[in-house]
């Protein structure tokens, strides 16, 4: 399956900015597959899941071979929940109680290394469409 390419920036509360080259998961098939079966995910890259409208979302690691960090964003791109070191293959659902528009998956350790946390903001056109 092929995914579109885009770029996102994570803006930390202290104003630091971190850019990522991402693949876009937008169709039901892409959202379902995500990063399954990938053997690596280089630093500075990730996958941005665009659910099209705000909804309750939980992610799992079925058929995912690499550990991941996940940032869950509301309709404005504000991070409302962060998951670190999701275990490959785990069927444990991960996610916030609140509604999200998107999820950014990045290599495990990225959240800790960059000091990312809820309240930070992900900048991408998907959050600017006034949903």
UniProtKB/TrEMBL annotation:
Pfam families: DUF192. InterPro entries: DUF192, Saro_0823-like_sf. This is DUF192 domain-containing protein. The lineage of its organism: Bacteria, Pseudomonadati, Pseudomonadota, Alphaproteobacteria, Rhodospirillales.
